[in-house]
Automatic annotation (TrEMBL), chain B:
This is NADP-reducing hydrogenase subunit HndA. Keywords: 2Fe-2S, Iron, Iron-sulfur, Metal-binding, Oxidoreductase. It comes from mine drainage metagenome. Signal peptide: none annotated. PANTHER family: BIFURCATING [FEFE] HYDROGENASE GAMMA SUBUNIT (PTHR43342:SF1), NADH-QUINONE OXIDOREDUCTASE, E SUBUNIT (PTHR43342). Its cofactor is [2Fe-2S] cluster. Belongs to the complex I 24 kDa subunit family.
Length: 225, 150
């Protein structure tokens, strides 16, 4: 594959054609914050936190690095006054939904974001789509999907599929930046197929024991509100 | 519910995931709403996951996931209709049908919807029943129109 040389934060970085600016930066150990990116998944461009400044042919523009392909000779700045300001506002907006998400709390500190700037609308989900896309692209189960649109868009576990598939997987829980995926699953379980946990603890009484349930440790989130 | 017609639609698109929206539009048109078990059968036939069907079906306002009445009543809430008395018209329609926007009555006779500018400002304020436009509606005329639908 052809080599492309670009400049990221003053460093000459080699990348191959078809890579994104984010991939090129990560390969060169340059950190760009991301929320909706996952190396196993298709680029999504949902959170916009990975925004960077790109200077090409004398023109500056602001692009999301997880989608933007590398080009020869472009100059990328991962931090600048304007980039930082954009990230700050994005974090503030996300915090209206998930004020205590650890990653957001950390980013807020770094970018000086005010978690109270926007009225709280604590949906806990930031619609990064990691759970939905992981279940689709990696597990091919589609147990969780987006429903509705616009301001009322949310993720939802499909009880019929979740009852069969989620018990022994639950891998999306650790991907979720806010623990909402787990909360939504547990709510679905409680509403649609309750009693399974109890049945599970008496599994030895059954002829065919249930598959082992995965238990994923959750880091407790300090309430700072 | 017209089971056979729905089955025919599902069969027509079997194995064609790309036709999901077409199938949904046709079922919606035929049945006026999309029951969950129909969506499940559609998902299986088109080889699309059920969650993706739900995603599409809940995304567009055209589709209804709750039962609709035999007659769909729209009262325009757009600017022109508003200026020409849509609020009074709506109030009367609500009174006659006993419904608020988005609701369906227990006999499944009417479903009431509002929506901004239905594209006929020149005959504002307007009432649409099952796609038929009634222009320059007064509350009293609306009552007569609705009576003609059983
Ligand atoms: S539940 Fe979590 S992983 Fe899923 S979309 Fe919301 S924030 Fe992202
Ligand atoms: S990581 Fe690029 S938009 Fe979310
Ligand atoms: S405002 Fe009612 S048709 Fe345009």
């Amino acid at each position: 594959m052809s080599e492309i040389v670009l400049n990221i934060d003053g460093k000459e970085v080699a990348a191959s054609a078809g890579m994104t600016v984010l991939q090129a930066a990560q390969q060169a150990d340059i950190h760009i914050p991301t929320l909706c990116h996952h190396e196993k998944l298709e680029a999504y461009g949902g959170c916009r936190l990975c925004i960077v400044e790109v200077e090409a042919r004398g023109r500056k523009s602001y692009v999301v690095s997880c989608l933007y392909p590398v080009e020869p000779g472009i100059v990328v700045r991962t931090r600048s006054e304007k980039v930082d300001k954009i990230r700050k506002v994005l974090v503030e907006e996300l915090m209206a939904h998930a004020p205590d998400a650890p990653e957001l709390v950390r980013l807020a500190e770094e970018y000086g974001a005010d978690r109270h700037r926007f009225d709280k609308e604590t949906s806990f989900c930031v619609l990064c789509g990691l759970c939905v896309r992981y279940c689709d692209e990696v597990k091919h189960k589609n147990a969780v999907g987006f429903i509705e649109n616009g301001a009322v868009r949310e993720i939802s576990f499909i009880p019929e599929i979740a009852a069969k598939e989620c018990w022994s997987c639950q891998e999306c829980f650790t991907l979720c930046p806010t623990s909402y995926a787990q909360a939504a699953y547990l709510l679905t379980e409680a509403l649609a197929f309750p009693g399974r946990r109890e049945a599970h603890s008496h599994a030895h009484a059954h002829a065919t024991p249930e598959p082992e349930r995965r238990v994923i440790p959750i880091t407790p989130v300090a309430a700072t509100a | 519910m017209c089971e056979q017609k729905i089955d025919a639609i599902i069969e027509k698109y079997r194995g064609q995931p790309g036709s999901l929206i077409h199938a949904l539009v046709e079922i919606q048109h035929e049945n006026h709403w999309l029951p969950r078990e129909v969506l499940q059968r559609l998902a299986d036939a088109l080889e699309v996951s059920f969650s993706q069907v739900m995603q599409i079906a809940s995304f567009y306002k055209t589709f209804s996931l709750t039962p609709k009445g035999r007659h769909e009543v729209h009262v325009c809430s757009g600017m022109t209709c508003h200026l020409r008395g849509a609020a009074k018209l709506l109030a009367r329609v609500e009174e006659i049908t006993g419904l608020k926007a988005g609701e369906t009555d227990a006999d499944s006779r009417f479903t009431l919807e509002t929506g901004a500018c239905l594209g006929s400002c020149s005959i504002a304020p307007e009432l649409i029943v099952d796609g038929k436009h009634y222009g320059r509606m007064t509350p009293d005329q609306a009552e007569a129109v609705l009576k003609s639908y059983e």
